[in-house]
Design a protein that fits this description.
This protein is an alpha/beta fold. The protein has three domains: 90 residues, no CATH class; 125 residues, Trna Endonuclease, Chain: A, domain 1 (3-Layer(aba) Sandwich); 44 residues, no CATH class. The strands form two sheets. Strands 1-2-3-4-5 form a five-stranded mixed sheet, sandwiched between helices. A three-stranded antiparallel sheet has the order 6-7-8, with no helix packed on it. α7 links the parallel β4 and β5. α1 packs across α3.
Length: 279
């Protein structure tokens, strides 16, 4: 069997940078060039003693680094932007193909990595910036979705016969608290247990049926059954902020004495820090 080719440091740079949005990589490329180009123009001071000689060596090293990095870093950013853009197009294609088919067989036929790509593409379509975690990430988080200052963790479960149990949701609560995430989603082909649905209630964790998700054109379709009108009413009837009058958003405390408990926070936070109890 052929030996696997080892990646160079440059390849690893491109791989890491490609996890950023391609627009960001594209914008950083000229900034990196001009920054390192300016560093390459720095001239070492004249050295007349040992201390000045040491400073001159450090400045010369910085100058040489600027001469090299003024080309390497922009090229790496441009390649990363291209890789990120192509990856997004591929995810969008996978999502379109999955949506154009019927029933759940197409989703079950996907590999686990393709399934994650389809889920990521769905959230990208909803305006999120997504990144994919390495294999074996803490808590089984597969996708990280960001919108503005809010971060959401996503687990993808391509389980065909086994139900997603409460242990998965309970572990995700701990990961949310550790990472300071606003909320989380569990996307599964298979069903969720009643205990899992009950535990997710009120903890900013949404359980999604992947098949309904692909057929949805609006917000993600929750797997929580429609027989919970009280909870849904609480989610929809958001009060006004007592400080500024803006609409409030349901959130979950990440730390302190009320950690894990739901509350309403002002939608303009951090501009306004008004809160109300959720119950």
């Amino acid at each position: 069997m052929a030996r696997r080719q080892r990646k160079s440091d440059f390849d690893r740079w491109v791989e890491v940078l490609s996890k950023l949005p391609w627009q960001l990589c594209l914008a950083l490329a000229p900034l990196a060039y001009f920054g390192f180009h300016a560093l390459s123009k720095v001239r070492p001071p004249p050295a007349t003693n040992a201390d000045q000689f040491r400073d001159a060596i450090l400045v010369t090293m910085a100058q040489v680094a600027g001469m090299l990095l003024q080309w390497l870093v922009p090229v790496a950013l441009l390649l990363a932007a291209l890789t990120s853009w192509l990856g997004r197009r591929q995810r969008a294609r996978l999502l379109s193909e999955a949506e154009s088919r019927s029933a759940s067989a197409p989703l079950q036929a996907l590999s686990w990595r393709e399934f994650e790509q389809v889920v990521g593409a769905y959230f990208e379509r909803k305006g999120y910036a997504v990144s994919f975690t390495p294999d074996g990430a803490d808590g089984g988080v597969d996708v990280i979705a960001r919108k503005g200052a809010e971060t959401f963790l996503i687990q993808c479960k391509q389980w065909r016969a086994t139900q997603v149990g409460v242990s998965v949701v309970r572990e995700l609560v701990g990961v949310m608290a550790a990472r300071g995430a606003t909320g989380a989603y569990v996307v599964s082909i298979g069903p969720f247990t009643a205990d899992a649905r009950a535990f997710a209630e009120g903890r900013n964790i949404t359980l999604l049926d992947a098949n309904r998700l692909l057929r949805s054109t609006g917000r993600p379709a929750s797997a929580t059954p429609p027989t919970a009108p009280v909870s849904q009413a609480r989610m929809q009837a958001a009060p006004s902020c007592p400080k500024c009058g803006s609409t409030m958003v349901r959130r979950v405390a990440k730390q302190g004495a009320n950690q894990g408990r739901a509350f309403f926070g002002c939608s303009t936070y951090p501009k306004c820090s008004g809160t109300r109890p959720a119950d």
